Amino acid sequence: MTEEFIKEMIEWFKAGKNLPRRYAWEIILGACSHFVKEESLVNLDLQEGVTCDVIGDVHGQFYDLLNLYSLTGTPTEKHCLLMNGDLVDRGSWSIEVILTAFAYKWLYPTRMFINRGNHEAKDMNRTYGFEGEAKHKHGEQTYKLFAHVFTTCKYL
Fold first, then answer.
1. For the chain, how many helices (H) and strands (E)?
2. CA–CA separation, 24 and 44 (whole Å)
3. Does the pTM exceed 0.85?
4. What is the DSSP letter of 152?
5. Strands, E, within 56-136: which ranges?
6. Tell me: the pLDDT tens digits for 90-105?
7. Which residues are CB-contacts of 70 (< 8 A; sequence separation ≥ 6)?
8. CB atoms closer than 10 angstroms to residue 123
9. pLDDT tens digits for range 39-68
10. Can 119 be counted among the known catalytic residues?
11. pLDDT at site 121
């Protein structure tokens, strides 16, 4: 994963295109490989010159996510970002939101933190739209993979 790939992926999403399933799976599994290594409570000691911002409740609003990134900055070696749950459901771009967040987690595992909100759960996904969106854009197996990976995220 590279910063360049993420920027190109975001432009791809803005153009209304779906990421090929193969890439989506690589991003999901790449993020998962870091989630499973994290403790249930992550202690973050910020070094001199490193900043941290907290955002949350994006609820599938991709352009809101991009606006928040323009205000806070994306994760870098000098900037931590905590996404405090409820990234999916309700909005029409939950896949784009979660893939962007997971891509940053994969690229910057010690600078991007993602907590699981109540919407990163099967019942909520079924009721509020993420399940249908994921199945429509990437198929049932991809939704099942997301559902599994959500269980590896730390719960609020």
1. 7, 4
2. 28
3. yes
4. T
5. 79-84, 112-116
6. 889 999 999 999 999 9
7. none
8. 10
9. 888 888 899 999 999 998 999 999 999 999
10. yes
11. 86
